[in-house]
């Protein structure tokens, strides 16, 4: 039975989040707000990574969809309702191709995502392919004591993932700078600009929290920042 696309997103993130929160409390007898916040960001990032892979894999389809949407809605107006409120069959929801609508729709606010020559296109494609596995490894490491060779010291874990979070934070700040310095907000509604700010603001707050956690891991060589606080 088809469900709203946003329900699939909620299941993909919310299901693992609740399971991890349960096991974290079971293992460490505490529900750390730091752990909950960081694990939620990492799960969202893992989902978005799959969409960012789609950005590259389905780039020609995205350009075609964007051209059709632009003819129908104009350059600066989002469709109503958004694709997230479309009814989607399960077979489509688990395919990468259907989620090309993420980028063809967002391209109405920023056409760089339907143009493979732009910085915005490549910074997100890079994030998708390069941070998916590190995201899952960090999430598992913060929750469980992994077996060798996946189990590395908290200090090394912090150093490696500080680079990961810094790359995400830097990429988001540069994207924001490019978006506003090139006046891409001009002519857009307040709601459309809010979509841009909120969608990208997650990748400022999340990596900033990640950098803080990595600093604590490097300083203490423990995972106390996410397991005891």
From TrEMBL:
**Residue ranges crossing the lipid bilayer per the database entry:** 35-57, 119-144, 193-215
Entry keyword Membrane: yes
Q: Which UniProt keywords apply?
A: Membrane, Transmembrane, Transmembrane helix
Name of the protein described by the UniProt record: Uncharacterized protein
Q: Which organism is it from?
A: Gonapodya prolifera (strain JEL478)
